[in-house]
Amino acid sequence: MDFKPFNPNIVYASGNLFFRSTDGGATFSNMLASPGIPNFTTEFISGNLNWKTVSQHNGAATILPKTGSGLGLFSTINSNTGASGNRTKIITPALNLSTGTNPTLKFSYTLPDYFGIVDVLKVYYKTSASGTWIEIPTANYTDAQETWLDVTLTLPNSSADYYIAFDAEIAPDEGGKGVTLDDISIQTSTGTIFSDGFETQVTNNFGDGAKMIAVSENNPSLVYIAEAKAPSTLTTYFGALYKSTDSGVNFVKIPQTKNLFGIASDGSGTDGQAPLHMDIAVSQTDANTLFIAGINTWRSTDGGANFSLASHWQDYVAAGDNIGYTHADICIMEAVGSKVYIGSDGGFFVANSPLATMNTNFYTDLSTGLGIRQFYKFGIS
Q1: Model's pTM, two decimal places?
Q2: What pLDDT shows up at residue 24?
Q3: Most buried by CB count within 10 Å: which residue of 46, 164, 232, 277?
Q4: Mean pLDDT of 223-227
Q5: 145 lies in the same domain as 128
């Protein structure tokens, strides 16, 4: 939990969700984004898994948008809705295809494979709002497609009240690695009737993992959230970083490529110990300087766009890399005044100058004299 600096009526609280109060905590609102994809409506055929807009899909391999910065995704990865049995349509607005000829639908898709299992994508149409959905026979995709494939379909039975639906279904058993879409375009001889590249910025599009909050007196309207991958077990790695500039009303995801909760110095791997060992802190004198920690600590000086290692849990590695040292497994970080304090499984540390050039003395160990020894095991005979 945290408060907006200098305004205790605005309260932020988190677990696996994020809540905001404007009356000092008397009531809270869940700030999760409205489900679905902007510019489309949703129809659940079975289950409750929804489509969403993302900046990339980390399935069997990373899938980036075909063009632009967004893509449409239907996947059970990082979802608590289960696997097989989920089937959902996203539907275009009403389209007037009666004023032109040769109506066509263009789009790009992927169907990543998971040990031979592939999810399903189909395309349907109907000629009125109350009409029956009709599957386009040539638009039934069940084979693995690891990279973007461009598709052009001729649309049958034009009308002045026409609808197109992209129908995705998670395959039986554990399912595949999801369905992605990008660059949808519907055209007739008169030009483009509808297009969507999933570029509309979706705010508060949080994942399901545990979340930690950080604020700064230097910019009271700024709020950061560090999120773990779901589900929230004690071996969970880094999931996402979000940033709000309007006191927690709207958050956007800041793309990250490193596992900031893991053990590796280069941020690789999928190890971690969240939510037990995870936190985030922001300098109270520079709101663009923030720290994220799990096993090691990382620092950004550009508002979360880039992170570099600030400490390593092995002192000889830290010395060799000319970075700070803190004991492994960070439980809490607090930015107080001009300093950042860290409490770990093995001690209490402080960055006296969080904005300083990185060096081996970046953190000072304050643990001397604290009765915090841990005994992991003992033997008797």
Answers
A1: 0.70
A2: 96
A3: 164
A4: 98
A5: yes
319 in helix, strand or coil? helix
In this model, does residue 307 exceed pLDDT 90? yes
Cβ(244)–Cβ(213) below 8 Å: no
Mean pLDDT calculated for residue range 176-184: 95
d(CA 61, CA 154): 31
Q: What is the CATH number of the domain that holds 330?
A: 2.130.10.10
Q: What are phi and psi of 58, to 5 degrees?
A: -100, 80
Residues sharing a CB contact under 8 Å with residue 380, sequence separation 6 or more, in sequence order: none
What's the CA gap between 305 and 177, in Å, rounded? 28
Three-state helix/strand/coil letters over 159-224: CCCEEEEEEEECCCCCCCCCEEEEEEEEEECCEEEEEECCCCCCCCCCCCCCEEEEECCCCCCCEE
On the question of pLDDT at 78 being above 70, the answer is: no
For 131, half-sphere exposure in the C-beta direction (CA atoms, 13 angstrom radius) is 18
User: Are residues 104 and 178 both part of a single domain?
Assistant: yes
Can you tell me which residue has the tokens 């009666």?
A: 98
Per-residue pLDDT for 45 more than 80? Answer: yes
Signed CA dihedral, 71, 77, 82, 85: sign only: positive
Which of 34-38, 241-245, 291-295 comes out lowest in average pLDDT? 34-38
What are the tokens at 90? 């996203």
Q: How many domains does the chain have?
A: 2
Q: Which residue in 202, 205, 208, 203 sits closest to 15, CA to CA?
A: 208
Q: What is the DSSP string of 330-376?
A: EEEEEEETTEEEEEETTEEEEES-TTSPP-TTSSEE--TT-------
Q: Indicate the DSSP class of residue 32.
A: P
- Is 170 in the same domain as 129? yes
Q: Answer yes or no: do 269 and 294 share one domain.
A: yes
pLDDT on residue 200: 81
Q: Give yes or no: residues 190 and 234 share one domain.
A: no
Q: Give the residue from 168, 165, 161, 166 showing the smallest Cα distance to 193.
A: 161
pLDDT of 8 reads 95
Task: Name residue 105's beta-bridge partners.
Answer: 153, 186
* Domain of residue 243, residue span: 2-28+203-365
Q: Which two tokens stand for residue 345?
A: 């499984």
Rounded to an integer, the average pLDDT of 173-192 is 93
